[in-house]
Amino acid sequence: MILSWRVLFAWEFLSVSLSNAPSFKKNKKVKKNYCNISKSVYNILYKAALKSNFKKWQDSKRNRRKYMKINQLTNESFKNYGRIISSCDLSELLEVMKSTPVPDSVIYEPSVGELESLSVKKDLESRVFGELPIQVGYCNGHNYSLNAVEYHRTSEINIAATDLIVLVGMQQDIQSDYTYETQKLEAFLVPAGVAVEFYATTLHFAPCNANDNGFRCAVVLPKGTNTPLQVKINEVGEDALLFANNKWLIGHEDAIDLKEKGAFIGLVGDNLTVKI
After folding, report:
1. Amino acid 275: pLDDT
2. What is d(CA 106, CA 196) in angstroms, rounded to the nearest whole number?
3. What predicted TM-score, i.e. pTM, was given to this entire model?
């Protein structure tokens, strides 16, 4: 862009200088032809400079859209997606989570015996899930991108053992063809030690890093959720989204591993990234 404008200004300076030269002043016809050519060249350079400037603006706008604003859980909009759970003692669970692995990628274990043996499991089972049998596992690792969204027929509880960021949206915004625009998602920081319940209509997926150290997140769901399907169904309508037990998923084109596993690809827009 800078080069285009410099060439433009240089040409303008040269044109003015030449048009005032003595040889041009003596021959009006030559001067007129020169001025017409100079004007045409100037217009070409001017359009090139504008095009370069617009491209830079487009790239800047695209980057601003791709990198998300991080909201606090106290933001009023979080009420659309869930609530903070403050009625359970999480101290034992948080202590056990300290010894769980944090790989360079993302690891998800739906059911972990050491976590399910803790007293908080019974507390969550009775008070949050109404005595529905539950499983307690974890999702840990390093992640900065959206990649997909999923939803369940029931609430999900995430317990942040470290600071982490969640990207969430609303199932009601899924289109009739089961595509979803990623620009509708919002990002929230979940501080370490905080438990949040995501409602059944909340779109979500793996957490993202809040810092360079990765994240640890305990995940509580009805028993059997996210385990392999036992019966193959016709992939028509919403059934095409059914990716595992009690798990409906919409993937992004960039999520190659999900595509290879047969995930429905329907996220429209950028594969949003959390910039820390």
Report:
1. 77
2. 20
3. 0.76
